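Box 3.1. Reading complex inputs
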Amino acid sequence: MPELPEVETIARGLHKRIAGDIIESVWLGEKPQPLKSSAAEIAAVLEHSRIVHVRRVGKHMVFDLERSHISKSASRNPQTHSKIPERAQWIVHLGMTGQLLIGPPEAPLLKHTHAVLKLKSGRELRFVDMRRFGRLSVVRLTPDAGTGFGAAGLEPLETDLEGFIPLFQGRKTPIKSALLNQKLLSGVGNIYADESLFRAKVRPRRRASSLTRAEFQKLHKGLQQVLREAIKAGGSSVSDYVDAEGREGFFQLKHYVYGREGKPCLVCRTPIKRVIIAGRSSHYCPHCQK
Ligand SMILES: [Zn+2]
């Protein structure tokens, strides 16, 4: 499952490669599972739109689209023949195995390709998803819609300590579950929750409300550090992920606890423990974390 750093890496890679390009035509597969909007609506919104920006919102990829059209009032009055850009967004959730690949049209069509966008530059952007948990949707934005699609929780990298602490106050759930709660923070997954709790020296089962201010401070700092390091390293997915160009893109970030059950803690040599919290594996050092 791609986590925040992977989605951020893919979004940045796509932005660098296709921002400014225009979608000329769209082909959508016959499997309805990946589509949250109807195929006709997706095609209608994407075709002839210019890709202004590709960015990450939570674990979603958002393509900001623009299309020039002449407004009805303006066309009635030739004096003010102004073009008002129509704004829309294409929202992609990669699910477990979704990939967005850019390549030449002659590149072989992979099995499980659900969408092909022909770009004006001559390239194609393809959505491939083996397990079909990925989701595609579109929204048309009204002029006062602001930045459009937003995630439910706060962005962990844009939330300061004073915004971070109140998220957990009064919560009796384990701190690990609270970190994974997408309504509180957006985009934090299992790996980065475990790694940030190790950095904060806090056990995953501790009640969220029991952390001291000093512990929250370390957790906030640890979470931002681990996410930034992973983004810098190009994401650290454990799946066989490929980046937008289709090459193996991700380096494994050094994990202190995640996936290291029974192995010696890199700080104190105590074997790392694994427990299940709310159905998810959680890893911690019983010596370093309190
Ligand atoms: Zn330790």
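In summary: Helices lie at 4-18, 39-46, 72-76, 161-164, 175-180, 190-200, 213-232.
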